[in-house]
Amino acid sequence: MPAPLIKLATERLILRLHRKSDIPTLVRLLGAKEVAATTLRIPHPYTEADARAFLKAQESPASKFAIVEKASGELVGGIGLSVEERHMHAELGYWIGVPYWGKGYASEAAREMVRHGFEDIKLNRIFAGVFTGNPASEQVLKKVGFKHEGTLRQHFLKNGKFLDDECYGMLASDWRSLHL
Fold it and tell me: Model's pTM, two decimal places?
């Protein structure tokens, strides 16, 4: 598979690799309890050490991108694909900082990341999981064209509580039929 692009763009956003200069903003945005509550891998509290570890993990092939507003240059969130080349599929993950919720940034970034996955990386399938009770994230996936594929009951343990995982997926053929 081809190496991921370093920068992607939409009408309002730039998706670029994370930088060390992003650390203070990552700590501020990811430090919000509301963001951690909707994601599996973001701890609360989120510290500078967590941000540094995240950046270090990104030194291998780039798959995680900062979501940046074109107009202001502000970091507003993050998005990525965890690609499994052998199976030609990837898991989509994303987060948006609380001050930027409700602006359509997650849908816009997800649409571009999915396009990148199917058209540039040549994946066959992209999937995503959402905790039950996160309708905003489910709406993002539906807007992009993902289909609900089922519920994994009590699939994750987070903060001492079992959470259901709502499973969504899209095939390359689905993407092509939406964008012919």
Answer: 0.92
DSSP letters for the chain = -PPPPSEEE-SSEEEE---GGGHHHHHHHHTSHHHHHT-SS--SS--HHHHHHHHHHTTSS--EEEEEETTT--EEEEEEEEEEGGGTEEEEEEEE-GGGTTSSHHHHHHHHHHHIIIIIS--SEEEEEEETT-HHHHHHHHHHT-EEEEEEEEEEEETTEEEEEEEEEEEHHHHHHH--
Whether domain 7-178 has CATH 3.40.630.30: the reply is yes
Per residue in 103-126, pLDDT (tens digit) is 999 999 999 999 999 999 999 999
